[in-house]
Automatic annotation (TrEMBL):
Keywords: Signal. InterPro entries: PSII_Pbs31. Pfam families: PSII_Pbs31. This is Photosystem II Psb31 protein domain-containing protein. Residues 1-15 form the signal peptide.
Length: 181
């Protein structure tokens, strides 16, 4: 990146440097050398690139749609761990660690994220200590505090409409069913 900027500035500076022409050359606008044309084009392109390029700004938008999607996708994965937690399967919970991280960052508002991270840390502290009762207690508290529920099972409901387009997060899940007459 620094090299590209340096080369751009060099091209711009060399385009405006004086050209030493032979004495017999005329100064008409039609009589220009190829070198001058290309250096002018390079300088103007470099200047346009330098001033027209804007930096990428990621705002980390948390709209209602992105929160709902994170709650549905990652909250559903967390809710599906209830059988593993009740059975004391630490490996299944560890395998879904990313679901906790993504749920905390995507579905929870910024003011409650520290609390969500602390609750997640309590779950994984119970896993590190191999304490089944502490895992169950911290998992149940986490699910209750952040209102985590599994997606509804619409597979056997003949009148259900689970999603309306292929970009919905429920496509391919138990809640993703289209009612067709």
């Amino acid at each position: 990146m620094k090299f590209a900027i340096l080369m751009t500035l060099f091209a711009a500076a060399s385009a405006f440097s004086p050209a030493f022409a032979p004495a017999s050359r005329s100064n008409s606008a039609l009589n220009v050398e190829r070198r001058e044309v290309f250096s002018t084009i390079a300088a103007s392109t470099a200047t346009a690139t330098l001033f027209a390029a804007s930096p990428a700004l990621a705002d980390g938008a948390k709209s209602t749609a992105t929160k709902t999607r994170a709650r549905g996708v990652y909250g559903g994965r967390i809710a599906n761990l209830s059988k593993a937690v009740n059975a004391g399967d630490f490996g299944a919970v560890v395998a879904e660690k990313n679901a906790f991280v993504l749920f905390n960052s995507g579905a929870i508002v910024s003011s409650k994220q520290a609390d969500a991270i602390d609750s997640t840390n309590a779950i994984f502290a119970a896993i590190r200590s191999q304490d089944k009762s502490a895992l169950k207690k911290s998992y149940d508290a986490y699910c209750k505090k952040f209102d985590i529920n599994a997606l509804p099972d619409l597979t056997n409901d003949s009148q259900a409409q689970g999603y309306s387009n292929d970009y919905d997060f429920r496509v391919g899940t138990k809640a993703g069913k289209i009612y067709v007459r």
